[in-house]
Amino acid sequence: QVQLVESGGGLAQAGGSLRISCAVSGRIPSIIAVGWYRQAPGKGREFVATITIRSTTDYADSVKGRFTISRDNTWNTVYLQMNSLKPEDTAVYYCAAEALVGGSPREFWGQGTQVTVSS
Predict the structure, then answer these.
(1) Any idea what the Cα angle at residue 56 is, between residues 1 and 7, rounded to 5°?
(2) Is residue 87 helix, strand or coil?
(3) What is the pLDDT of residues 32-84, one digit of tens each?
(4) Is 95 left (phi over 0), alpha (psi -120 to 50) or beta?
(5) Between the CA of residue 32 and those of 8, 28, 59, 60, what are the distances in Å?
């Protein structure tokens, strides 16, 4: 099993910055990738960014050039640096890990952290 705990959310003004963190524990050597997702009120959960075991990154078009995902070498913490924030970035942000369990990929999710951007 992999446990994920998000932190660092809060209130920011439009144009400002926040960094949120995802503390990872458990079967860390089995992790393939960790991603950030978000869910705004009344909307479905959407992909934000991901980073793989080889540190390859990918971003949603809506956050490219503004958000940066990174991790430490041991997968203990995954970060999402959010710059030039917009009100439409307001959402609950979740981190999710894809890990091999018994040879098959499984997803594990954190409980989420609220990010609110005021105009």
Answers:
(1) 50
(2) helix
(3) 999 999 999 999 999 999 999 999 999 999 999 999 999 998 889 999 999 99
(4) beta
(5) 24, 9, 17, 19
- Residue 49, classified by CB atoms within 10 Å of its CB into exposed (0-12), middle (13-18) or buried (19+), is buried
Residue 113 — very low, low, confident or very high, per pLDDT cuts 50/70/90?
A: very high
DSSP 7-54: E--EEEETT--EEEEEEEEESGGGEEEEEEEEE-TTS-EEEEEEEETT
Contact status, residue 18 vs residue 115, Cβ threshold 8 Å: yes
- Within a 10 A sphere around the Cβ of 10, how many other Cβ atoms? 11
Stated as kind and residue range, the H or E segment containing 97 is strand 91-101
Sign of CA dihedral 29, 32, 36, 42: negative
Q: Could you tell me which residues come within 8 angstroms of residue 72 by beta carbon, excluding any fewer than 6 positions away?
A: none
74 contact partners, CB below 8 Å, separation of at least 6:
28
